Amino acid sequence: MLFPVLGMASMASAHTLFTTLFINGENQGDGTCVRLPEDPQTATYPIYPLQGEEMACGYDGEEAVPYTCSSPSGARLTFEFRTWPDYENPGSIDDGHKGPCSVYMKKMDDMDSDSASGPGWFKVWEDGFRDDEWCVDRLVASGGMLSIDLPAGLEPGYYLVRPELLALHQAYRGDPQFYAGCAQIFVTDGPDGGGPGADETVSIPGYVSAQDPGLSFNLYEGDATRYEMPGPAVYGSGAGARAAAAGGGGVALKQKEGAVPGDCLVKNANWCARPVPEYDDEDSCWDAADDCWAQSKACWSTSPVTGSRNCGVWADYCAETNDRCESGGRERLAFGGKEWQAPLPAAIPKPW
């Protein structure tokens, strides 16, 4: 048979990136708590090689970000994928990139020092082909979003959560294309010692190989109803799940590191503006303005591929502070800006 022309599939506009986390329907902000690639030219590219450390959390995903988002046990997490990470244009992924989706998690003792790649990963959700559609079809119809409910029985603490899309349009040529990224979350409550057993964890990389049926499936000639999902079984079938179900008493933990500051005025990904010093005369006003612009510079210099719009919101405030100082300002100007968020591409979906 003749296969579709795939020459344009290598364009960045055909690819995708996980950019935004929602917890119980609340937008955490573009890039907030999300490990993102640093190179905007390749940020949306599929991840290679299969056995590289990049398979864990994507390109540059070994480096932790400053913020870790708090989540109650059993919360609904929603992951948004975009073709244009900064929402310059709408779109999630080319609808020809059909294939399955999965979500994995890994318990972390220390976000900064623990490695994302390696053992300890467990699958908490998967969706392949059913009802004449692939998971990626459902994701596209949902504006690039997919949702899961955190499994019951997880021990409270720090976790990486890793949504994964697998595009099969080139798999018959030996080129399965993975798109994955990681969010940092802190589960606030749950059973002491709960979680997966050793039989339910895998190493990433190492959890799939190019020879797996799910990675070499012919999207155009194969029987999709017989598609074999790659990777391990979903958490809930092994010793760890039985231990969690048996119970051990619930515990609640307070997040000690990585929380967004309570006095954060506006946030851009993993940067946050803090109140400038109080002032009561022109000289101290200019000191406050200097502080404002120093924070602004830090925002622009750390802006990730999801954009810098909220750096502009803060810079507007700095300019207003300058105006206040020029008029002999004797009282700190209240911050009146509003944090920008991309419009929702669709209603937040329920888990499929």
Automatic annotation (TrEMBL):
<dbReference type="InterPro" id="IPR005103">
    <property type="entry name" value="AA9_LPMO"/>
</dbReference>
<dbReference type="GO" id="GO:0016787">
    <property type="term" value="F:hydrolase activity"/>
</dbReference>
<keyword id="KW-0964">Secreted</keyword>
<keyword id="KW-1015">Disulfide bond</keyword>
<comment type="similarity">
    <text>Belongs to the polysaccharide monooxygenase AA9 family.</text>
</comment>
<keyword id="KW-0119">Carbohydrate metabolism</keyword>
<keyword id="KW-0624">Polysaccharide degradation</keyword>
<keyword id="KW-0378">Hydrolase</keyword>
<dbReference type="GO" id="GO:0030245">
    <property type="term" value="P:cellulose catabolic process"/>
</dbReference>
<keyword id="KW-0136">Cellulose degradation</keyword>
<dbReference type="Pfam" id="PF03443">
    <property type="entry name" value="AA9"/>
</dbReference>
<dbReference type="GO" id="GO:0005576">
    <property type="term" value="C:extracellular region"/>
</dbReference>
<keyword id="KW-0732">Signal</keyword>
<feature type="domain" description="Auxiliary Activity family 9 catalytic">
    <location>
        <begin position="15"/>
        <end position="223"/>
    </location>
</feature>
<dbReference type="InterPro" id="IPR049892">
    <property type="entry name" value="AA9"/>
</dbReference>
<protein>
    <recommendedName>
        <fullName>lytic cellulose monooxygenase (C4-dehydrogenating)</fullName>
        <ecNumber>1.14.99.56</ecNumber>
    </recommendedName>
</protein>
